Amino acid sequence: MTIENLEKRPDAHPARVYDYFIGGENGLEADRAAGAWIRMQAPDLLTTMQANRAFLSRAVRWLVQQGVDQFIDIGSGFPVSPNTHEIALRESPSGSVVYCDVDPAVGRRTRELIAGQKGAGFVLGDIQNPDELLAQPAIQALTRSGRPVACLLGAVLHFVPESADPARITAALREALPRGSYLVVSHIAGDVPWGDRNDEETLKRAFEDMHPRAREQVARFFGDFELVAPGVVLASQWHPTGETAGPHPESAIYGGVARRI
């Protein structure tokens, strides 16, 4: 999200503005100001980011119920409770969660949060260089364990342009996962209309660094993994709770989970 163009504040940071959207406390005054401005101009962006966060939390809880206790969270962003490790390790204290992000500031904040937390770690890495990312010892310890691993790609693939070959990236990640593992993806929808209450110019600028994709394109990122019902759907409609049930056309982000069989 090109916050600089939206708010004319060069000190606002996209990851911290997203953090503001989902209730985090890592932002600076400029980030909060940019977020408040976007809230007024395109309120459904806020709803969409919140829907994404809720989907990821539900997906992690569902995976824990399936017996998965190893997680790789790529493009994790600034930590906001409940974090992946808080959900996963609460139920499986002997499990492991490795966060990965390209932003050193995210790394510093995450390491502060998980300091002393057994089973939680962070590695600096870029999803656009999957081979380097997968070569990290902390990640290899999970992918070579022979036990199922859940790889989370929450709201990160829509920052990968076609020129960087997201199909190649997701194929490399899938291939590294042991059988019985899961891939979780959420992705801004390119075929879901935004409501009239959202300023078109604001949306255009917000998506300058994003690459929204249609549902069929998102589904292809799962390759030959077996999609968990209900498949790739609006994030708010994936295993909804009472709070998320019902149509939410304003939440223009897809979510899906699939298993390597």
UniProtKB/TrEMBL annotation:
UniProt-listed SUPFAM superfamilies: S-adenosyl-L-methionine-dependent methyltransferases
Record Pfam families: Methyltransf_19
Alphabetized UniProt keyword annotations: Methyltransferase, Transferase
Listed GO biological process terms: methylation
A Gene Ontology molecular function term of the record: methyltransferase activity
UniProt superkingdom: Bacteria
EC number: 2.1.1.-
Keyword check for Transferase: yes
Tagged with keyword Nucleotidyltransferase: no
Top EC class for this record: transferase
Protein name (Swiss-Prot/TrEMBL): SAM-dependent methyltransferase
Native species: Streptomyces caeni
